[in-house]
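Journal club side-thread
Mid-discussion, someone asked how the predicted structure for our own chain would compare to the paper's figures. Pasting it here so we can look after the session.
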Amino acid sequence: MARIPTKDEILAWISDNPTQTSKRDIARAFGIKGADRIPLKAVLRGLEADGVLEKRRKTYRDPDRLPPVSVLEMLAVNSDGDMFAKPLEWEGDSDAMPRVLYIPRPAEPALGAGDRILARLTHVGLDDYTYEARLIRRIGTNPRRLLGIFRAGAEGGRIVPIDKKADREWIVQAGATQGAKDGELVEAEQSGPRARMGLPQARIVARLGDPSAPRAVSLIAIHEHGIPDAFPDAVLEEADRAKPAGLGGREDLRDLLLVTIDPADARDHDDAVLAHPDEDPDNPGGHVIWVAIADVAHYVTPGSDLDREARKRGNSTYFPDRVVPMLPDRLSGDLCSLHEGVPRPCIAVRMRITAEGEKIAHRFVRGMMRSAASLTYEEAQSAIDGTPSDRAGPLLDPVIRPLYAAYAALKTARGRRQPLELDLPERRIELSEDGKVSSVAFRPRFDAHRLIEECMVLANVCAAETLGAKKRPFLYRVHEEPSVEKLDALRETAQAAGLTLAKGQVLQTRHLNRLLEQAADTAEAELINLSTLRSMTQAYYSPENFSHFGLALRQYAHFTSPIRRYADLIVHRALVSAHRWGDGRDGLSAEEADQIEATAKHISDTERRSMLAERDTNDRYLAAYLSERIGDEMAGRISGVTRFGLFVKLDENGADGLVPIRSLGSEFFHHDAQAQTLMGSDTGLTLGLGQVVTVKLAEAAPVTGGVILELLEVDGAVMPRGPSRGARAGRKGKPPRRKAGKAKAKAAKTKRKVARTRR
């Protein structure tokens, strides 16, 4: 009988031979054959029972070491530019999970945080990391993630997704709950392939607490859309080390009466304005406009921890109860915010316009300013309307009146340019101290808003023109014209409303404005504005200039909000480099210029991510607000038509609700996707965009944001209900199925009786 190796001898051999860990490999290594394999098997079972080895398809290995080929999930690039990965099948002590450094080869695809790869590992055993990984192949996208409410069961439980578009629940096995409690909000990911039959399976990866807790609504959106909401320590430390900028090398603008004009609840102030008459006799009636923007580039330099985190976030995300900022509060709320009476570094543009609002010259400076006042839109408007506040009163003649005079000239130029003039009120959700919705209203819109918008648009045009002329790499803000298909849909909507959108010509914004003017002050105004908005393409960032259709501008860039948009920071750095300001450390680096196309795509994606998160959050808050009014009747308009029902926008608060097609009655409704209508097969009732309706609130789900409505009236008439299926069948000369079935059964029964009698 051959000598059976001890447990220590087997472990030592496996450690030296990690690729040969099957029972056959171990037996061959120790010269064990035939019946002697039985006691060897018992030793291996003992090692497995002790938790020292695990069995994987007849293969044994040390759980405290990774196999030579493993599946890894990539982590974010660290401050040194290195990318590490975590093993997905680690069975050892969680506190001792090895660090794996990814070593890319020159021609391999770029990997990002969350990517999963099959990699070949080399054990190096260094202090900083244990393994080095080389890519074998990328193995696709991350497993599907979901947020939902956990419902505990006898053996694990289920997850009810919070996504209102989700059509089924997910099963969680007993060992994959992470200790989640019934009713808790959880984040989970798909486990195993999705079955074609039955419910999919998931494992919980994070417990997020009580979904009904105050201010949990925005937290749901943050996790659902993967928005980074916690700054790494290194980023916070770098921000805390920042010191206020000095005047050295800057133009002193502190004597200029620059003011900020923002919403009353503004969390940061990154732009200030000033206007005065142009004293040049060659420009009679002209104006000089200053726009000064916080010099964020001074504090956030290329390649720094702050810069990497800002690029990762792409932009700030705003919710009714919180903001997820692009920059830490030390910068966004302090050093980079243009607070009243505090010296702040800025990049400013001085613009000269004619009496008709045409720009005739501009120049950029890097300066030091001091805001004369932090005004709200309401304060500025009240002042020009004749009721100035104590703070705005002294600024009325030297600051506010000249600003409005310059705006009047810009407005004249805007009328000639004819940018798209959509009139869509902005919804405002106000929360009480306990985080509940106290009211839903529409934000008032004043000339003060339009004044600031026109000044910012002009400054953005100057930035694009300057950098384009100097042939510097930077990011344009691009808005391409609508597709033919979307324009055809808009044209049909207009025709259904009795309006006209001309065909057979090169589309310009003035054509769309003419349509909007036709609809103004009519019942179809909101419908036409919404339909026009939906026909537009999504604006994005690009290093190539494809113009801005909506603003009717050939060149356009984002320059005026570097605290909350990374694109603006890129433009600031490009201006620093183009003007050779300072020592160049805060200008656009060569590395940034090389990857500017990737940056454009990334921040365009983060912008869309924030828009979706903000919209979903508003939907959930509105559903929570409406959940206390189940059964109420409300007025609205049909805003969307699909094969599964109608969408209705409520007049009172702008909430969108679904009228399921099953609730419209028992008759069949034909869906015409091109005309965007539903037509009843029996009543002939046609339901289409823009119709005035009265609905009853049937359901409102705060967790998903879903609102279900019941249609009561259409254009002032009670909603007709089609006849029953039985009645329809009778009219066609055919007995209802149920009666036919009974008759058939009765005939069969009679036939059986006759047969028994004959027997």
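Post-session note: The mean pLDDT is 87.
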